[in-house]
Every structure is written in C-alpha cells, then in structure tokens.
Design goal:
The chain has 262 residues and is α/β, with parallel strands linked by helices. 27% of the residues lie in helices and 32% in strands. It is built from seven helices and twelve strands. The strands form two sheets. Strands 7-6-5-8-9-11-10-12 form an eight-stranded mixed β-sheet, sandwiched between helices. It has a four-stranded antiparallel β-sheet with strand order 1-2-3-4, with helices on one face. A hairpin with a 2-residue loop joins strand 3 and strand 4. Helix 1 packs parallel to helix 2. It is globular. The termini are far apart.
Length: 262
Amino acid sequence: MSADSIPAATRFLRTTGQHAAIEPDEFTEGGYVLSIGGAEQSHVDLADPSDIFYEYLRRIGHVVDLAAPWAEPITALHLGAGALTLARYIQATRPGSVQYAVELERELLDFVLQQLPLPEGTELHPVIGDARESLAALPAGLRFDVVILDIFSGPEAPEHLACTEFYREAAARLTPRGVLVINVGDEPGLTLVRSQVAALRRAMADVAAFAETGMFTGRYPGNFILTGTQGPWPEAWTAALTARGPHPAKVLSGVALDVLSD
C-alpha cells in the first residue's frame, strides 16, 4: 500500500477534547504518523509492519522477541493502543497470534482501524475503556505471554495505573513465561521512572530498565522500557538488548537498578 493511497485525515476525540491526525510520513514509503493534539504519538509502516520506526517501540519489540521466539503465535495484551504499531509487529513476526488492545478513546481506536487497516489475518480484539477496569473485565481464564502498558507520558500518570496493585493484577494475567513491559515517558529527574521501578519491583520477581544510555543520567526527557519477569532476569537478555539497540543502549537489572530506586 503506497503512502498516496491514504490521505491525511483528522478525528475529534471526545474524552480529551483533542484532535487526532493521521498523515503520510514523507520520509518513509508506506509510513504514516499518528498525532494527537499536534504531538506525534505513533508511526506505522504499512508496507512493512515488522519495521518499527520509533526507538522506544523498537526496544519493546526486542523484549518481545526475547520473551517469545519469532514465528510462534503468542497471546498479547496492549494497554494503550495508539496506532497499534506493536500489534502489527507481533502479527507480522508471529502470524496467528491472539491480541487484545485496550483504549480509553473510542474515537481513536475507530479512527486508526478505519484509516490504517490491520494486516489480513490479524486477530485483534479491541476493548474500549479504562485499562484497569478493562483488565479486570477480561475472561477469567485468559492469559498473556506479553502485557504491554504504553500509557504513561510525563509525571502526570494516572495513580490507579502507576501502582504496585495494578502491576500485580496485570502479572496475574501472565502465562508462566509471560513478561510485563511498561513504557515510561518522563522528564529530567526521572521521578516517575523511579516510582515505577519501585512499584514494579514489588509486583514482579525481577525488573530491568532498558533505555538510551544517556537517559540513565537523569538529565534528559525520554523513555524507559521497564520489564518485569516472573523469575530472575535472564542475564543473556541484557547482552542481547544492548547489542540490538537502538544505540547507544543500556540495560540495568538486579542490584545495578538500585540507581533508579524511588
């Protein structure tokens, strides 16, 4: 599908009162950018959904790759849908996967699905509502190999989501091999990151933080990928994630992660 086949479009989001826009990416053939309130939120490559443009989403994709081998269908839960970049990635790399996507903004999810159709064969179950309430309402026996939370942006994270209790509820939905992956966007000082490392440590057996190397100084705004595991963090994953980048990349776990303690 060429970038000329889908024109720029907008949609009003009633929950936040902002406008969402989807427009072709002039630098990527087959690429599209979702913006909300004028700020870029997601990038989708319809020509190659396995190619992830945004660095923080590529880092999450690498975690998924370590947690579940390519070509093997998985179950995945996306809390915060955006343009469904990671749902498209999982379908492209693991056809036959069963996925759920929870989004608070009904208009946003409808808009994305209408303007940027999912690849043929994708089994995605959209859920409209609050992430915590929707998690509790899912079928009791449903378990996931990957739960991805991509809602936090800056220090004003919803308190009922940015807490140990919610992470425990999410962890209870994991398969034995499952991982809980959280994108935390934060400002210099990393107040939110530090609090979420502490909260996740109380909910999971082990935790690792993955980010651009300079982010660990606490002097810059940006994104951390926190991953909770149900057993000890595999040290081989540290080397693999560091090598896969985007570069320069750094991973801290165990005692080394104490530098980000709350």
